[in-house]
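User: Second chain of the day. Same drill as before.
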Amino acid sequence: MLKKPALNLVIDPDVPIPIYVQIVIQIKSFVAGKVLSPGDKLPSVRKLSRQLGVNPNTVARAYQELEREGIIRTTRGIGAFIGKTTKRVSPQQRTELLNKILDYLFIEAYHLQYSKEELRSILMKRLEEWNPAESNEKSSETDTQLEEVEP
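Assistant: Same format as last time:
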């Protein structure tokens, strides 16, 4: 029998992040934190949209993005499930994707009037606190140097 973990997704309409992206981020976080495991079934689009009070198209878009990234797999008429493996990308693609995310972070930090030192301090503190259930073996092999990050 398939496990059906409760998804306690929280949507914040007051943040400048699209709702579908909030859903994607939270599901990816649940996978990284091992709250969701390969084979776990996700709620149907209709059920999750009712639960969150959002348009079903928003949830469908989030699921499409997660499937495109290799996080989930969907089977028509059966449902969406956490995938067994994540999509493999080249080191260059990984770097490009992370740089886009960092660019967005830097833009937001600028508009929130954070100095480089404040941002560096926050990033270092969060990095020390972050523990996605130590699911990514590569992160322990690579010593990340955030001091080199410049907005």
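The radius of gyration is 17 Å.

User: Great, on to the next one.
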